[in-house]
Give the backbone structure.
Amino acid sequence: MNAYDDKRGVHAAAASQARRDMDLRDWLIRLHASDRLATAKPGMPLRFGVAGLANRLDGSKALVAPSPEGAEGGTVISGLLSRREWMAEALGIAPEDLLSEFQAAVAKPLPWCEVPRGRCQDVTYEGDAVDLTRLLPIPTHNEHDSGPYITAGLMICRDPRTGIQNVSIHRLQVSGPRELGALLLPRHTLSYFAAAEEAGEDLEVAVVVGASPACLLASQAIVPIHVDELEIAGALGGAPLDVVRCIGKNIFVPAQSEIIIEGRLLANTMRPEGPFGEFPQYYGPRADRHVIEIDAVTTRRQPLFHTIVGGGLEHLILGGIPREATILNTMQGMFPSVTNVHLAPGGTYRYHLYVQLAPRQPGEAKNVIMAAFAAHYDIKHVVVVNKDVDIYNAEMVEWAVATRFQADRDLVVIGGTQGSKLDPSTDEGYGAKMGLDATVPLDAPEFSFKRISVPGEADIDLDAVLDDSVPEWDVCDD
Ligand code: MN
């Protein structure tokens, strides 16, 4: 079956349905209206200033930085999706449904819908007008980064063999006015590129900056190579995604995006890229990497330039949520008694997995630990807890380890395994795994592991019962 031909049929029936998710600007308006958006004074330096401020606000407020110093106008935005509840809200779903809704979207993607025009093409730059260093306010983030980077760009390209599009985020170094350096890990984009290169051709790409929350999250889905992540974005939003064709490339991009950079991944060309501050809070090294030559830029009027600060919560959460959804799906397939999983922030949303389990068999937690090691090679340390432990609260998980774990009985260590190459304590990714069974033994008397609680505590309405006038004992005359 040729999925590409299939989709063309859907394009012909172009009819927009209502989406339940928000586009980027709607989400910014929502953040502003609820006091979760901070606006910087004009002139925040593009070099470190914008990233520093975004980091200070990380997880509490999103940032808008208009007319930054070092740019010819423009506005940078950052930290829009730095809490998982915010992501759920932007998608129009309840926070507790985030993983199940993502799983449902991955299981049943919705083909996109081509529309004749999109705001992302309101303004066009071609030929000599294409100069990234002048057109866009692109920040430099961490101290030893090699320079400005585009970090929130969805790279969209088309498989030369099947015509299916792929969407992924790559760090993109601004190497010159019309040149980007790209880190391509051995995944789908690199496979498409290798096919083009073998035929002696460049690979056309579009880099989308200022995409909707659904598109950003869908881009990180862990799915087979024949799945177009824009179709997952459609399903996440509950209606087919509107796309437009690039002005000079046979690539379809989300119509309501802020900025589209059209170019080509050059065949047989590698140039230095890096270093760059990455998610484990360390720098990825400088090395020869792939090169994109830019042919055109299209934007909305007064576009917003979204930047994701390397290692910040927005960076971690975007990758973490789709991983959790995939890991939960994999593990529940083997162990229906697994009720939830969470990639903990302290493990940079990649290396530490907390598993919530309703164990039914002695030893089950240890089997679950081994399944977690196999679910994704990045997972390094696993803690399994009972359902009475909140896995989104690291202190609660630590309490379970403190009071329900005995190292001589409940510890699993496996050496000589595959891990993350970005974990500097490994030997190029070769390292050890550790699992902690912090569940209550099945035969333990119930009362001995019952957590203390005060009846009604959670239901007290503090505004109703507290008196904020000056307390009588504070009227002192010393
Ligand atoms: Mn893919």
